[in-house]
Amino acid sequence: MKPTVFPSYLLDDLFYYLQDRLAELVKGKKFLLVLDHFCTKEPIFWERLRLPLLEGAEGSRVLIMARNAGIWRGMTDPHFEQLQGLEKDDRQKLFNDITFPQANGDVDKKLKNISESIADICQGLPLATISLGELLKSETNVDNWKTICNETLSLENNSICPILRSLMPSYHQLNYESKQCFVLCSIFPENY
User: Fold this and answer.
1) Are the CB atoms for 75 and 104 separated by under 8 Å?
2) Per-residue b/e over 125-143, b at no fewer than 16 CB within 10 Å?
3) How many CB atoms lie within 10 A of CB 121?
4) What's the pTM value of the predicted model, to 2 decimals?
5) How many CB atoms lie within 10 A of CB 119?
6) Where is each NB-ARC domain found (predicted)?
7) Which domains are seen in the chain, by residue range?
8) How far apart are CA 53 and CA 48, in angstroms?
9) 90-106, pLDDT tens digit by residue?
10) What single DSSP character describes residue 103?
């Protein structure tokens, strides 16, 4: 199947049509629009999206979730909050719920201390906590837990973000071909 290629003037027409349609949909209505993983740093993109949203009723809100605080540049009067990670007890509970689903709160004593260290490594980030929990869910060997914990801790001094640090042990367990696929994908820029 060949990709469809449109002339730029048709894309412009389509874009303006979508802007008009969005304005019609929100006109006079109070709404909450949630944009998850918003990643463009181009102010023009936000401005073009914002214009039709101005048709909404007073009190309408747009919630934008992004990893990079730099996207706020160019936005008019943004109010943003830096979300904090899970509290220690919550991240430990999340990790235990994923790793020991049948434990009903009872965690093997040998693994309890290691599980606390691993949950702390994730710095309260749910994705990191879930990733490591899933990796260790079927693992009962204490030495393997220690190895994964030590590997992840050794990466802590590097400038690798906590999520990537938590995904590294999973990456190391991949077969050679799968690792090569990741290496190939890494040549493309973000959001390509």
Assistant:
1) no
2) beebbbbbbebbeeeeeee
3) 22
4) 0.55
5) 25
6) 18-102
7) 8-72 (no CATH), 88-185 (1.10.8)
8) 9
9) 999 998 888 888 766 56
10) S
